[in-house]
Amino acid sequence: MTRRIFFVFLIGTLFLFTGNKVLAGGFNLQSIGGVDTSGRQLSQWWFSGSSPVFIGEAGAGASVEIDIDGEKGTAVADESGNWSYSSSALTDGDHQVLLTSSESTISFTLTTGVENVNWNAVNSDSGTEALPAAGIIWPSLIVLLTGAGGIVGGGRMIRASKK
Predict the structure, then answer these.
(1) Tens of pLDDT, residues 75-126
(2) Residue 64 in contact with residue 103, Cβ under 8 Å?
(3) What is the pairing mode between strands 35-36 and 63-68?
(4) Per-residue confidence at 34, pLDDT binned at 50, 70, 90?
(5) Which domains does the chain have, with CATH numbers?
(6) Is the pLDDT of residue 64 over 90?
(7) SS3 at position 132
C-alpha cells in the first residue's frame, strides 16, 4: 500500500514539473514586432510601431491564419515549427487580432502607436508584476503534499484504531 502511494505521489509530482510543457505545446505567439510575449496569452498587447511582425511556433508545416481587423493573411510554419507574418502598416489605436492554427486560436487587442504606450509605467522599477508568471506550481504542490500526507497519516490512524 505504501509503495502505491509513493508511486502516485511521484507521478503527480513529475506531472506538475513537466505537465505545463506538454499541455502548452504546439501553437503559440513568441513576439510582436520585437516585443517578447514568451508564449503568454494576454487580452491586450502594446506596440509602439505601425508594422509589427508576428513570430510564433506551430506544428511543422502547419498553416497559421492571421486576421487583423478583418484583413486576413497566412503564414506557414517551417520544418522546425517556426512561423512569422509581417503585417501591413496599421493606424495608431486598437486592432483586433485573431491567430488560428489547427483549431487553436489566440485573440487579443493590439494597441499601436507611440502615444498609446504609458512609458512611465513601462520604465518604472516598482519590482511588482501585474500578472504572476504562468506555470507557478507551489499552490498545486502544497495541495498534493497535504493530500499525500493525509492519505499516509489517515492509513496509520485507521490501523492504530483497529488494534
Answers:
(1) 999 999 999 999 988 998 899 999 999 888 999 999 888 766 566 665 665 5
(2) no
(3) unpaired
(4) confident
(5) 2-117+134-162 (2.60.40.10)
(6) yes
(7) coil
Measured between alpha carbons, how far is residue 98 from residues 19, 51, 107, 157 in Å?
A: 26, 16, 4, 56
What angle, rounded to 10 degrees, do the helices at 138-162 and 2-24 form? 160
Environment class of 151 (CB within 10 Å of its CB; exposed 0-12, middle 13-18, buried 19+) = middle
Q: Are the beta carbons of 103 and 62 closer than 8 angstroms? A: no
Give pLDDT, residue 24: 40
**Grid cell at residue 89:** 502598416
Q: How far apart are CA 143 and CA 155, in angstroms?
A: 18
Radius of gyration of the chain (CA): 23
Q: Which residue has the cell 509605467?
A: 121
Q: What is the largest CA-CA distance in the chain?
A: 79
The answer, as to whether pTM is greater than 0.90, is: no
Do the beta carbons of residue 57 and residue 117 sit within 8 Å?
no
